[in-house]
Amino acid sequence: DADTTYAALAARPCLLVLDNAEDVPAGDSRRAGYLNLMSRARGAGARVLLTSRVEWKELKPRKVIDLHPLPDDPALQAAQAMNTALDAGAGEADLQRIVAGAKGHPRLMEWVLNQIGGEHIGAKTALHDLETLRSQDAQAALDEMVLKTLAQMERESRDGGAAAQALRLWCVFRGSFTLSSAASLFSPSPASEASGRERGPGGEACESAERLLATLQSWKFVRTLPGDRYALDEVVIQAVTAARQVPDGAARAHFDHYYAHLGDYDRNNEPENHPAITADLDNVEAALAWGWAAAPERTVDWVDALRLYLGLSNQYERMRRLTERAIQVAQAQGYQYGEAYALKALGDLDRMEDRYGEAR
């Protein structure tokens, strides 16, 4: 558990490394938890190394180490390899301009080449946008480039305005999502008064979402995955979130949608429904992270509804983390019903892991 972990950190010199921290941008509901983790680890005597393309200004004190750009030769080789893999068709002179304009930043080079190889933005426009970026910081420059592309889509595409609006809303998704989920968030369905469950989106909403997703795909904001699923590029989520363009209410709509479909205890206890939970587990985790503060009792209940799924899939570490958090939140809210079920779940977990002392 957490106390044992921090005690172990205090027992001997330790380095705690948190990689890819840009995946938890400012404003993300998970951010506070990571800040608390780092604070407690440092309090236990551990040294903390955070790797991120974006500086976490809340960390105080902190020492920032800026990495140098890739040297020209390796950066050009990387650009050449990307050009081939993406089938962008950029010439050697353009590749040299991309390396210089991106200062060797791999993700920025990749974004420019993706646009050059796409349907809408040729090399001339992409290079002009790259070479007129105002931001000096590599991540800020990448964010600016993404938002430039988004603005161009809004201006030039027939569905550009609606597609951009949908994209900003869909930036609350994590991992991948289905067409039905996209349609539900873009055009929320009313809840059934009898069941409290969300009705699926109608055919018109799905057709609209499919059309907007096709527009976003053609502009390289969205990609398709096996199983009829979609995913937003992580750099897009980062740029839109950092610019605070995600609409108010998007996180609640995301929570409500997945709670309605994956938060029912009885349905989750049917093994045939478990693949659906697995497919959307990233979205469930993101919804829970938002719900601890915004919808605490429903979130505690949701964790209980996931208990059998997590146990049967041997996700004991995840089950323990979520159950311990559910106990803390239930106690803070005075939610005795939820606390009782969470304590029982924790005892069951201890027995499953042969931790009989803790179970008693």
How do you describe this structure in short?
The chain has helices at residues 2-11, 31-43, 72-85, 92-102, 106-116, 123-131, 138-156, 160-170, 179-186, 203-218, 234-242, 250-262, 265-268, 274-279, 281-294, 296-305, 307-312, 316-333, 336-352, 356-359; strands at residues 15-18, 47-50, 177-178, 222-225, 229-232. The protein is mostly helical and 360 residues long.
Describe the structure.
The chain has helices at about 1-10, 30-45, 70-85, 90-100, 105-115, 125-130, 140-155, 160-170, 180-185, 205-220, 235-240, 250-260, 265-270, 275-280, 280-295, 295-305, 305-310, 315-335, 335-350, 355-360; strands at about 15-20, 45-50, 175-180, 220-225, 230. By secondary structure, the chain is mainly α. It has a 3-stranded antiparallel β-sheet. α5 runs antiparallel to α6 (about 125-130), α12 (about 250-260) crosses α15 and α16 (about 295-305) runs parallel beside α19 (about 335-350). The model is unreliable at about 190-195 (pLDDT under 50).
